[in-house]
Amino acid sequence: MATIIGCVTTSHVPAIGRAIEKGLQDEPYWKPFFDGFEPVHRWLATASPDVVVMFYNDHGLNFFLDKLPTFAIGAAPKYRSADEGWNIPQVRPFTGDPDLSWHIINSVVADEYDVTTCQEMVVDHAVCNPMALLWPGGDPWPVSIVPVEINTVQFPLPSAARCYGLGQAVGRAIASFPQDARVLIMGTGGLSHQLDGERAGFINKEFDEQFMASLASDDPAWATQYSTVELVEKAGSQGVELLMWLAARAALGAGAREVARSYHIPISNTAAGMMLLEPA
Ligand SMILES: [Fe+2]
Fold first, then answer.
1. Active site includes 264?
2. CA angle 205, 124, 18 (to 5 degrees)
């Protein structure tokens, strides 16, 4: 049987890929951010996941404004890294897990979450940078991946409650997967930031800290009290990517224990956060 062993949520900004390429991890600007992942590396050494189920938001690479599913799940045997326009270095391809993908797809559709299925899929910095943060320099990747994509590019966005529900459905699907697998959940995006408009540069540390605390609390669905517009107001128009963290936390199950957390401002005009949670 598959077992969910933990959940890592992290920022994914494009600049991370450039910093890794240039070896800037110990530069004063980057060091606090990269140092935040040391506890995760220690945890991974013993946790030994086989597969990552990753909630992320595409940035116009695999989906564009002309055809934009609200929820999509990859069912490909391989996922190639590609550049949606930031000219960041590409990473080696990821191996998929079609058996687990189709099990999750069948299970969540039966659970009334009508996802788009993708038997071909390219992945952008929202998948590649978090993977490189967890497994720096590893070749090949020690895990396969199942990408779960949520639209945060074009309104209407799915509500926080709907994303939480999808996460719960994915968690139930994993728990019923008959093959042995140690599954790490990931959620990438955020935290608060806004890249354009009158509020460009907007960061809301107080809200980010409340949100992070809620994920480790007895009320992990705390953020579902807010509409997507309210989340944009509180976290910024791109900070709404925190919906990935919410879905990932929901997939982990009812109770969670916080293993590590970091939060650093600014990284490329964003508040950069990371949390590692284990099932309680
Ligand atoms: Fe993003």
1. no
2. 70
Q: How far away, in angstroms, is 12 Cα from ligand 1 center?
A: 6
Q: Which two tokens stand for residue 253?
A: 């199950």
Q: Cα dist. 226→146, 190, 234 in Å?
A: 28, 16, 9
Token readout for 191 is: 């935290």
Q: Is residue 12 among the annotated active site residues?
A: no
User: How far apart are alpha carbons 142 and 69 in whole angstroms?
Assistant: 30
- In tens, the pLDDT along 25-70 reads 999 999 999 999 999 999 999 999 999 999 999 999 999 999 999 9
Ligand 1 centroid distance, CA of 180 (Å): 32
pTM of the model: 0.97
The helix or strand, by DSSP H or E, that contains position 94, with its residue range, turns out to be strand 94-95
pLDDT at 33: 97
pLDDT at 123: 97
Report which of 195, 267, 249 is spatially closest to residue 36, judged by C-alpha positions: 267
Helices (H), the chain: 15-22, 31-35, 38-47, 98-110, 125-134, 160-175, 205-215, 228-235, 242-252
pLDDT tens figures, 78-109: 999 998 888 888 999 999 999 999 999 999 99
CA of 152 to the centre of ligand 1 (A): 9
Whether 188 and 267 have beta carbons less than 8 Å apart is answered as no
Nearest to 65 by CA among 80, 78, 84: 84
CA nearest neighbour of 114 among 58, 168, 74, 70? 70
Q: From ligand 1's centre to the CA of 262, what distance in Å?
A: 18
